[in-house]
Each structure stands twice: as structure tokens, then as C-alpha cells.
Amino acid sequence: MAAPLPENEAARLDALRQYAILDTAPEQGFDDLVRVASILCGTPMSLMSLVDEKRQWFKAKLGLGASETPREHAFCAHAILGTASLVVEDARADHRFAENPLVTGNPNIRFYAGAPLMAPTGEALGTLCVIDQKPRQLSAEQIEGLEMLARQIVGQLELRRVTTALADALGGLKTLQGLLPICAWCKDIRDDAGYWNSVENYLQSATGLEMTHGMCPNCYERQTTQLRS
């Protein structure tokens, strides 16, 4: 049976797309974590699965040839409904999966365990999952290890997102012939249109960053000295 949609489905899909990872090439870092999951759990198959609107797509995989499957057949579509790992010890004995084409046919799934990939904002992007063609169980330590690896995957995704955002922000700092014209007296900056702006306004316009103000130790000492004199 197909899994229902999560209550936060729109926000979940938006969060997934912010990582700009769907349909990208394999990467060693994710491949390594998927392989470690397989070794940890003793399964011949493991996947980093991202659940899109109509499919689950595999960023990294071990022991499986397909690069994606329909969402209505995805075990991971059930796993993203909660925050805890989903463990299916024998799919043929589970009414949710007994008639699933991935159980009755290739790859003949019998065992599944998936740890949700939880974004910092609380949306489940997909799972790190391990699969076997025979029924089995995992120890509490193995499940905990799978969840730890899932957090490592999300950490890599977050680093990728923040790095990209930072690169975009820095790319938005437009300069004239590679130089940033700044007033030697008041420190205002001249933009490409020839207008002078404060440093705060220029950076906010160029990068979208919000500014906060404080006082450095040197200025604090200088100001307090002046007030005491």
C-alpha cells in the first residue's frame, strides 16, 4: 500500500529542493557512508534515498542497479512519516508491503531498515536505509549506528547548502574593475551606479544579509576614555 503524504509535505519538498542535490552525480563522501551502513548492519544493499514528489531517487547506493523507483512503491515514503527509524523485519508478513512490487519481484525485499534524513528545520528529506532479501533483525546498537550515519549525511548536505549560499552571497558583491571604491573619511562605498551608500546598506543590498551592530574593544575603550575626560 502507498504511504500517505506527510502533513508538512509542501515544506518538506521545499526543504529538499533547497539542497539542490536531486539528479546530481555520485559523490565519494555519500557513497562511503552508504557502504559503512551496509557493513554495520550486515546487509547486501544500502541506499541514500531522497523522496521527491513522485519518486524516490538514490544519491548513493550499494547492491542495487536502479537509480530511482516510484514513490508509491517506496518503503522510504513510509519511513519519512516519522522521526524514528522504520524497521521491517519481514516485508511479506507486513500488510503495508506484502503486495509491493519491490517485494514480490526484483529486488525481492524482505528486510528493510531506514533512518530518516532530518533537516535541521524538521523535515524528513529521505532516508539512509539498509535492505536484505531475507528476514532479519537489527540490534539496538546497529539501529543507533544507522541513525548516526544518517545525521552525518545531513551534516554533509547542510555544509553543501551553506557553502553554496556563501558563494552566491560573495558573488553578489559587485565591484568596479575588481576594486571596491570606499571613502577614506566616512567609509561609505560607491556602487556600480555611482551612488554612495553606507557599508551596511551596500552589503545588505549586495548579499541580502541582515546587519547587527556592536562595539569592538578598541572603540569601547576610546569612547569610555572620552566620556571620563
Topology:
Blueprint lengths: L8 H10 L9 H14 L3 E7 L3 E8 L5 E3 L5 H4 L6 E3 L12 H4 L6 E8 L5 E9 L7 H32 L17 E2 L5 E2 L1 H9 L9 H12 L1
Antiparallel strand pairs: 1-2, 1-6, 2-3, 4-5, 5-6, 7-8
Helix pairs in contact: 2-5
Structure in words:
The chain is α+β, with helices and mostly antiparallel strands and 229 residues long. It has 2 domains: 9-168, Beta-Lactamase; 173-228, no CATH class. It has 7 helices and 8 strands; from the N terminus they run H-H-E-E-E-H-E-H-E-E-H-E-E-H-H. The protein has helices at residues 9-18, 28-41, 76-79, 101-104, 140-171, 199-207, 217-228; strands at residues 45-51, 55-62, 68-70, 86-88, 111-118, 124-132, 189-190, 196-197. The strands form 2 sheets. It has a 6-stranded antiparallel β-sheet with strand order 3-2-1-6-5-4. Strands 7-8 form a two-stranded antiparallel sheet. A hairpin with a 5-residue loop joins strand 7 and strand 8 (196-197). Helix 2 packs antiparallel against helix 5. The termini are far apart. The model has no long low-confidence stretch (mean pLDDT 89).
For the structure shown, list the relevant keywords.
6-stranded antiparallel beta sheet; single chain; 7 helices; about 230 residues
Number-wise, the strands total 8
Query: What is the name of the CATH superfamily of the largest domain?
Result: GAF domain
Strand content: 15-25%
CATH topology of the largest domain: Beta-Lactamase
The CATH architecture of the largest domain can be given as 2-Layer Sandwich
Strand order of the largest sheet: 3-2-1-6-5-4
> What structural class results from the helix and strand content?
alpha+beta
Give the averaged pLDDT, no decimals. 89
What series of H and E elements makes up the topology?
HHEEEHEHEEHEEHH
Main sheet, how many strands, which sense, barrel? Answer: 6 strands, antiparallel
Helical fraction: 25-40%
Which value, in Å, is the CA radius of gyration?
Answer: 25 Å
Overall body shape? elongated
The CATH class of the largest domain, by name, is Alpha Beta
Distance between the termini: 80 Å
**Domain module count:** 2
- Compute the number of helices: 7
Spans of at least 5 consecutive residues with low confidence: none
